[in-house]
Amino acid sequence: TIRRLAAQHGVDASPHPMSSLARDINRLSDAEAPEPDEVRRLLINLARKDFVTEQDATLLLVRYLRERAP
């Protein structure tokens, strides 16, 4: 669903330029923040470009994580 939605809107999984800054801050603070996978990056970019609301992005993420759960 997320991949299809991203394809419909021409959104890719490229990291946002601020993502590298966030990684550096996390690394320097010893915070453990996992790197988002391709589907999560698609969802982040869909939300950044206002193709989905924050609420819809949250619901899509929950559905995606439930589908991945063993």
- Total strands: the figure is 0
N- and C-termini, Cα separation: 19 Å
User: How many distinct helices?
Assistant: 4
Rg over C-alpha atoms, rounded to the nearest angstrom = 13 Å
**Can you give the mean pLDDT?**
86
The biggest beta sheet reads: none
- Uncertain stretches: none
Helix/strand-derived category reads: mainly alpha
Order of helices and strands: HHHH
Q: Could you describe the 3D structure shown?
A:
The structure is a single chain. The protein is mainly alpha-helical and 70 residues long. It has helices at residues 2-9, 17-28, 38-48, 54-68. Helix 3 packs antiparallel against helix 4. It is globular.
Give a brief description:
The chain has four helices and no strands. The chain has helices at residues 2-9, 17-28, 38-48, 54-68. It starts with a helix and ends with a helix.
